[in-house]
Amino acid sequence: MTCEELFSSKVDATPWLYEKHLRLSQQDKGFLRSSLPTDNGSSTVTLGAGMFEVAVDGLDANATQGQPSQMISQARRLRQVSWCVTVVVVSDDPAFLAAFAEWSLKGRLLVWSTRLLVVTRLSLMDMQEAFSTLWTFSMMNAMLLTFDNAQETTSFYGATVNVTGLHWPPYFMVDQGRTPDSARVKEYKGPDGLLLGTIANTLNFTSNLLLVSNWKEAADRVEERKSYMLVVFHVLLHTRLERYDYSYTYTFTSFGFGLAKPVLKPQWQSLYYPLADEVWASTLAALLLMPGLMYMLSRSSKWRPQDAQIGRDILGSDTIGYSRGRRGIWAIMQDVFGTFLGQNLSKWLPSSSSNRVLMVTWMVFSFIVGTVYRGNLTAALTLPKYPPRPETVEELINYVDRVTMPPVGKDLQKQFRESESLILEKLANLMHNGPSILEGLRQATKTKQAHLAVRHVISHWMADEFTQADGSNPLYFGRETIMPGASAWPIPHDAPYKPQLDSIMMAVNEGGLYDKWTEDILDQTRRDSRMKQRRQHRATIKANDGGQQFTTTIKALTIVHMQGLLMLFLLCLIIAGLTFTIEILIPQGSSTELATMNRI
To answer: Once rounded to an integer, what is the mean pLDDT over residues 70-79?
Structure first.
């Protein structure tokens, strides 16, 4: 059976569902009536369309409690015997639409092959929750058709509209431009500046930027209704809602903190860093154990006369210790420490195989440890170990002495103090409002403090003002963001142009234009910053090298790198001086006594 044959037949219910003028949130529930009735109680569907209507005019709600289930039951009977069924629900009441979703689910009205079209004059934001949470709308074959319930787009008829805002790169920047007839006009740049231009062109008005000195004054003009809107986004805070309303929330703002990178301080541990604690402990244990082992093997080995002759043939003289084939503990320690530091053996060779094996083992061990240490020391000097730096809010409040923020941060500070988070409360106690972003970042480079602001704004100022000629930056971002939240333009309470303003902002936001504008201005800032660095670098090369265009990346070692070595050298000089003094003060014995001491 085709769809045309089905719609021309007689069925026991109507194929399409139509709802009109419901107010189920009120006490009157209305009643249900079926259109196109026939004499025998069935519905003749010649055009393939029918209607169910629930009215509320002067009817007893108690008499119509069972009507919704009867309506759904009739519609379901039709769906079971029909093809190409489309259910159209028309309502401006969100309560009815939610109730219909529940009725259709309980009455099993819809299957996947049944198409559902919801027609309403409610806004997309009002329907977003229903279409994302209710099974009937989110999981079935449903479509939403909305009509703008507002009046036609209001026009300001070319009037001049007062707005407030401050130069706030990269979001809102004021520049001087020229019209085609060479007249000077203000030109707004940045994402919020372009958004203002789009709204002004759509609503046909000319914006007049009122002169204000700070953000508080800009917000006060909106609260006093001297300004129609503050054209730079502000975070939605409940403390601000008492003063003014907000437009459509078209972006999300996250705060971040910037502070100076920890600098390297001269440390004697620079000679200690190349090896781990366990390696140092193991090496020291081997260094102390080795002289004892060699001394015991030397004492236990037998003396052979030919060893003395070998020593005389090799060294050209009879050395101390060859007369008896044994050496003293001090001579052995001299060989052990000397070979560990890369020196050659003294004029003595092991006489036994065990001593020779032990000495070769020690020399191999000393060579490996020395090579590893020298390699790691080179790396540690060229890539020194920087102190840890705060990356989270909890680490920040334990590291800095204060946190600065622009004057607009008073509302945020109040919000933090009313928060249940102990971390945010401590952050609020450290906050000091007053300096601008640029001044706050400059203070952060000199003192132990951080500056709190919108992340993209801090990024812009860091790249534009603090990037050095070699591309480095003395400042950095904290990894953790602080209280990301929805943001919008402040407008006066109950502003009559709010629906039109929201509609334009929604269209711009859903089209991805605002995000595109933001990325474009940030990319342009990065390009300008790189060009500025290159110009500064070329000027530095020309000034220092007499116009030569080659550069070098070799950096001289400073006291930060060499303090440990200099302190070790000074310590060794002191020990050597003390030893020299002792040798002068204590009379030396005869050579025979010295030989006897070395043989012990």
So the answer is: 79
